[in-house]
Amino acid sequence: MINAFPKSRCVAWTGGAVLGAAAGISAWLYMAGRAASLFNRAIVALLAAFIAVNIALYIARLMAAREYQKRLLLLYEALDPSAFLQALLPLRKKRMDASNRCTTLVHIANGYLYGGQPQQALAVLEDVQPPEKAPEMRGLVAGNKATCFLAAGEMDRAQTAMDELRRIDPESAARLHPNNLGRVIRAIEIYRTTGQTMTQQIAHSRREPSPYNACVIGLDFLHRDKLYARINRRVDEMLDAGLEEEARQSLAQSASTARQAIGYKEWIPYFQGACTRDEVAENIKRETRRYAKRQLTWFRRDEGVHWLHVDDYPDGAALVSAAQVILDEWRDNG
After folding, report:
1. pTM tops 0.85, yes or no
2. What is the pLDDT of residue 260?
């Protein structure tokens, strides 16, 4: 990554050479003043030069990372696929560690995807080799591949992925929806990289009983319209607090993840000039209401949840007091 940008390259090479030489000479003269032997002078001088060079390299890495994020932010703000690819494609030839290379290729794939070239994006993603100790990166790549499959209309390849999962892990295949390509691809990658299926890993994690005994208190509303009104008000507050700029930055730093997040993904057509700010606000409110409904449905399946209705209480203090009563009873019952 250092060699990808002129400033960081200059700091690494020129700064490293100057600092290393200065530190080495200073250390040599210092040891000479203490009447040290030539051998000791050389050892101390080399050590000082080594430390100085590594400091220069560290500064260069920080500069390169900052410049990289700055360029990404500007590119995602403009959302110009041609400019995006023109800026990022040369980085494929630069030397960088596995994590940075993986991230760069994912961003390049996003550029092709934004430009309406999902096939090219898929070709780039096929070359991505996430580090073995970066499961979150593997999940990111899997999610991007799924998006490209859908954008390219390659349902045959999507069906092939599901057929492969049925062969190696029929339980996961039965549990996952065929349209949830990100999880399908992720389940296949888990088997390919670990030799164990996702089902086996889940079963292994559940062999031991949980050491935790939690008191779970759930909040709901008797009148759903009150919940939705709060959601709408909260979204308005987030917009006033700078959600638009936050979305811009998040898309630049982690575009693939941000494209799936409520409150961020709705801004993409706005940044592309395809909708108004008011439409973005309404879309965020609608998606948040739907998400809240899904959350309530999920938690209601747990019979151990102690439910409190917010609109049963005059204020937050009364609600907290009711929750404290539940917690005290739970503690008394062991």
Report:
1. no
2. 76
